[in-house]
From TrEMBL:
Entry's EC annotation: 1.1.1.-
NCBIfam families, per the entry: PRK05365.1 (NF003768)
InterPro entries, per the entry: Nitroreductase, Nitroreductase-like, Nitroreductase_HadB/RutE
Highest taxon, organism lineage: Bacteria
Family matches, as Gene3D superfamilies: NADH Oxidase (3.40.109.10)
Domain Nitroreductase: 37-192
Molecular function GO labels: oxidoreductase activity
Keywords for this protein: Oxidoreductase
Name by which UniProt lists this protein: 3-hydroxypropanoate dehydrogenase
Pfam families in UniProt: Nitroreductase (PF00881)
Amino acid sequence: MPDTHVATPDPMLDPVADPADELALALAADRLFLSARTPQSWSDRPVPVETLHRLYRLVRQAPTAFNGSPARFVFLSSPEAKERLRPALSRGNHAKLKAGAIAIVAYDRRFFEHLPFLSPHYDPSPMFVDEPSLAETTAFRNGTLQAGYLILAARLLGLDAGPMSGFDAAAVDAEFFADGRLRTNLLVALGHADGTPPRPRAPRLDVSQAVAVL
């Protein structure tokens, strides 16, 4: 879980005019990025259903193409639901089933059917109806974007989040999305870390190594 110390303005952040806004920015940056860590081990402390609903209500506000919102979230919180996932996980991810909840982040391959409602000022659904490859690419890209929002929203609500890619997506689809409309993108463990991180944060690339401004 993010540290509870009071954040001070970070020198990496550009200053803003209002000191109160600067402190709020520093607190948010600390909670979402600077102090947050991906747990290596998990507490079995449950995540209330109300928190999971609140989590989604935050995620849905963030932008996607045409407001299409193709991600679909299945939260596995009961022991029985998590055990259904176990056969699809790599052995190294089995211990993560201890987390309060496991989110299956899937995407709706026919998300465009909701566009007349979600994009009332301009209905782009016709461009996807006869272009399944475009629909698939758009759903996957924007569903992945929403998975990122999920991780940040979880941190904002005081949860830890651990994305997982060590799993058999086809096996997850067969178990949870047998009709083929939804496809699994990734998994995210949600809940609370068991203890402090066992090692320091790993290095990150320098701006000069990862950024170009043209």
